[in-house]
Amino acid sequence: MSFENLKRNRDQISKLVQAAENAGGGTTEKKNYADERIWKPTVDKAGNGYAVLRFLPATEGQELPWARYWDHAFKGPTGLWYIENSLTSIGQADPVGELNSRLWNSGIESDKDRARDQKRRLHYVVNMLVLQDPSNPTNEGKYSFTSLVKRSLIRSWKQCNQSLMMRKQSILLISGKVQTSS
Prior knowledge:
Blueprint: H1 3-8, H2 10-22, E1 48-55, E2 66-75, E3 81-85, H3 95-105, H4 109-117, E4 121-132, E5 143-148, H5 151-155, E6 161-167, E7 170-175, E8 178-180
Antiparallel strand pairs: 1-4, 1-6, 2-3, 2-4, 4-5, 6-7, 7-8
Helix pairs in contact: 3-4
């Protein structure tokens, strides 16, 4: 292609550059990995929040009204993050869990520290209806999922409205006179 043709076809070159950027080659846009189906409580600067939720019953064919899963999230020796669900969630052997067992059983304290940093975390997920969310009223009336890490919330399960009050990292679930704190 001659220089004259290049000058005449400037539009096409800018279109090609734009197409390459749209395909992910050079875009500076930050990706959002948040799952919009998951409701998360909003707290103020002091760490307090409030919402009224209705936990929904189990779907047809399910025994329990919640699901549980384990995951791993840690920075590896290369400095990159490893964030994955654990295969133990679906009843399979998990390579990270096996590595952690070898590290723990080595008897070396630094290996034990690494195994602690890489351990799996337990999560519970429930279906629910957001009845009142004063911090974010656009959530009200939406069916959603929420990930609950506190076993105490699952133990106090009732199929009625639950007031969820958060205070500086502790959660109180209030239903009539029942109160559970972590």
